[in-house]
Amino acid sequence: MDGLTAARQRMTDAGVAPQAIDVFSHFYEQLRAGATGMIREADVEPLAGIDRAAKVEVSQAEARAAADATVVIKLNGGLGTSMGMDQAKSLLPVRPGLSFLDIIAGQVQHVRRTLDVRLPLVLMNSFRTRDDTLAALAAYPDLAVPGLPLDFMQNLEPKLRADDLAPVEWPADPELEWCPPGHGDLYTALQTSGVLDELLNAGYLYATVSNSDNLGAAPDPEMMAWFAASGAPYAAEVCRRTPADVKGGHIVVRRSDGRLVLRETAQTPDEDVAAASDLTRHRYFHTNNLWFDLRVLKKTLDERGGILGLPLIRNRKTVDPTDPSSPEVIQIECAMGAAIEIFDGATAIEVDRSRFLPVKTTNDLLLLRSDIYGIGEDFVVRETAEPPLIDLDKRFYGTIADFDARLPHPPSLVGARSFTVRGDWSFGERVVVCGDVVIEEGQDAPGGEVARIVEGTELG
What we know:
The strands form eight sheets. An eight-stranded mixed sheet has the order 2-18-12-15-11-3-6-7, with helices on both faces. It has a four-stranded parallel sheet with strand order 21-22-24-26. It starts with a helix and ends with a strand. It is an alpha/beta fold and 460 residues long. The longest helix has 16 residues, at 100-115. It has helices at 3-13, 18-32, 60-67, 100-115, 130-137, 186-192, 195-201, 221-230, 273-276, 294-303, 362-369, 394-397, 400-406; strands at 44-46, 51-52, 70-76, 93-95, 98-99, 121-125, 151-153, 157-158, 160-161, 178-179, 206-211, 234-240, 250-254, 260-263, 284-293, 313-318, 328-333, 347-350, 373-375, 381-383, 389-392, 412-421, 426-427, 432-439, 452-453, 458-459. It has 13 helices and 26 strands. Helix 1 (3-13) packs antiparallel against helix 2 and helix 3 packs across helix 8. A hairpin with a 2-residue loop joins strand 4 and strand 5.
């Protein structure tokens, strides 16, 4: 039995939808043929001449009509394993009594109340996040829109041995033999779950999609009205790049046909990294916030037999991410933002940086929990000051457990420009950071306590 046949059988036995197996097979054949998914600089032009959200003007009637025809989809399949978590990252507390998920629910419910619209919230969960997430959402009995589910499941696929592309076997933890197909599985999962048809049958026309760890991507009725009026089948939200964004995906224009294309870091050849990182040439990065017309998506999937044809991403890892000596595997993935090249007339819109607040590390989490951000009655997260650069020692603050043990009370950061911590320090309440602060390993602690910043200390 060759690798593809074995993988298809394993997916069938696990109850994976036939369409999802066909999409996996499509990518497998590309992988076997040596496809890399690389996008050369010589084949693309920079993105230019796009709309700006700051200039969008719509009436309340237009905003209400668009909001009543839009569904909010949040990608919620991540466990936050890079921060030592074993449950959905969206369950992390952001404020006392408020998790990411609580704030998302509050944002949606506020728009519903304000505009008197349906505006469903639907999560794309993974097999690792579904149970805990739905249990948390039980606190919101009126959140689900009648006739629609609160979630649908991301598909599964086997990890492939790097040496022969056969499904890997790992008896020590068979769950690690499986992986999600990347967030590009969104479109397949919407169809195979039946949720796409349910939304269309209920009269919804548009979807706004973002990651659940990005609280900046609040449902925005003005943006909904802009997309509805644009007539575009698909739109990507982009921001101006800074030196901190050179490793993220960015939108380019393919020379051969003029289509917008998402180029991820993993799709950039080594010889093109310098050009791809040039902020004066490629000025925008992809926020992973996107919009699409549900009717166009269904029509395109039907015409293509369920296979959109997104570009392949080869993700090389070890079967056990915590064990570098475990067998090397390849995970077949695709990015949901890559769908921008599929649809005729797809576009992009420049949004303010405030719509991009992802939490990927405990550095990000400290900022979000601090007084740099405020959360209003509408549950929208807003800056109160320019965010400083945070650099916490990964040895002692890299995981949530270590971070919470040492920083149970976030310091005030509104007066800070940068905050760097080296070594194993703990912090008391009401600590204030001003200017540029560096705490070195082994230095004398303010107040005389060993490796502890005592309550009420002003640093800087």
